[in-house]
Amino acid sequence: MVFAVGLMSGTSLDGIDAALVEIEGTGTKTKVKLVEFITYPFTKKTIDKIKDVFSIKTSSVEKICSLNFELGYLFGNAVKEVCKKADFSIKDLNFVASHGQTIYHLPSPEKSQFASTLQIGESAIICEMTKTTVISDFRTRDMALNGQGAPIVPYSEFVLYQDTNRIRLLQNIGGIGNITIIPPNAKLENVVAFDTGPGNMIINALCEKFYEQKYDKDGQHAANGKVNENLLKEMMDHPFIRKKYPKTTGREEFGSEYTETLLEKWQDKIEPKDFVATATMFTAKSIVENAKPFIDDQTDFIIGGGGSYNKTLVRMIQKQIPNVLVKIQEEVGFSSEAKEAIAMVILGNQTLHHLPSNVPNATGADKPAILGKITYYD
Ligand SMILES: Nc1ncnc2c1ncn2[C@@H]1O[C@H](COP(=O)(O)OP(=O)(O)OP(=O)(O)O)[C@@H](O)[C@H]1O
Ligand SMILES: CC(=O)N[C@H]1[C@@H]2OC[C@@H](O2)[C@@H](O)[C@@H]1O[C@H](C)C(=O)O
């Protein structure tokens, strides 16, 4: 039996997702069982440090250097905590698969730049703290093959979710929204995946600004507000939304600078709850517009990630595609919050077996590749 911990710390900065998983087999024969899951929270101080290095205005090489190791210690703690909660001896762990914290993603660089992406959280520290082999840095190899280095979760979705009769569409709504479409009986070459635009990123920033709340719990503010059509149109005109795939995005395009610009122009004209409602509709509409070319009435439209708990957002999506059955992840038997951490274990397992796990059709890479770097404990 092989046991591993998958670590995911995504764009919304709500903490480190750690999944203790039992895994068997490889490729399409992979079987996983979730043993335990925790979200190891970030302190406000750590969140501020991460936000600081994200932003060109406040970042510095010194801050990045130090944070790389600091996050390594936190990731190591998250592994220990999830094992403790499961009453599982860390000595029996076979490997850790760590995504790392994305601090910059430049898939379509300007002239003087190189296509690049940077995830930090030093694997050597995780390795020493847990005395376990660590696989990390999954995105760079795909980028070396001219891919976007993202999304990387679709391989695991192809393995776990494909169906013989129905199109399965998996929409993740984290900080950013990302979609995977798996046709019935698909081969890996037929899987389509890309980022749809913002997920909760703008909604969260507005809730922090207006209400000093981290997010719009269950979509309550949005439910009380009214969508402003002019603002919505301006948001939908963002060039990323109608760009053709492969495409991926992040805080570089929809982070605090973007929200600040919107606020400067619209804050005096729109009430806070209407602003939140409009940002929520922006996420819903950008998802539906990007999904529409790939779906029919027989599609399982499955929403995962933290945004699946925003009832107003889910309702807005369903209303725009009344003939399609919209479900949330738990309704098809998988944990929404643990999904990406489990995906890291599937990717790490492939790497340890010298097997590829990117989806070239999704990332635009020239060919399949073995992803990640391995820090061996012994
Ligand atoms: N009950 C809830 N109601 C509304 N929104 C919620 C709720 N629970 C979580 N969320 C939203 O989900 C977000 C976290 O989502 P998730 O953990 O999937 O993101 P992530 O993995 O960090 O991001 P990404 O997938 O983009 O890397 C929170 O910041 C919040 O906006
Ligand atoms: C560079 C980066 O970290 N991208 C993330 C981000 O968060 C969601 C979306 O943007 C997706 O492209 C990706 O994450 C998921 C886990 C992926 O690669 O599949």
Task: Please tag this protein with its features.
single chain, 378 residues, alpha/beta, Nucleotidyltransferase, domain 5, seven-stranded mixed beta sheet, five-stranded mixed beta sheet, 12 strands, 39% helix, 21% strand, globular, binds adenosine-5'-triphosphate, binds ligand AH0, kinase activity, kinase
Quick structural overview:
This protein is α/β, with parallel strands linked by helices. 39% of the residues lie in helices and 21% in strands. The strands form 2 sheets. Strands 1, 2, 3, 4, 5, 6 and 12 form a 7-stranded mixed sheet that branches.
Domain unit count? 2
CATH class of the largest domain reads Alpha Beta
Amount of helix: 25-40%
CATH-assigned fold name of the largest domain:
Nucleotidyltransferase, domain 5
Name the overall outline: globular
Helix tally?
A: 15
Mean pLDDT over the residues: 96
Contiguous low-pLDDT stretches (5 residues minimum) are none
Radius of gyration: 20 Å
Distance between the termini: 19 Å
Hetero compounds = adenosine-5'-triphosphate, ligand AH0
Enzyme class: transferase
InterPro entries: Anhydro_N_Ac-Mur_kinase, ATPase_NBD
Organism: Pisciglobus halotolerans
GO molecular function, one term: kinase activity
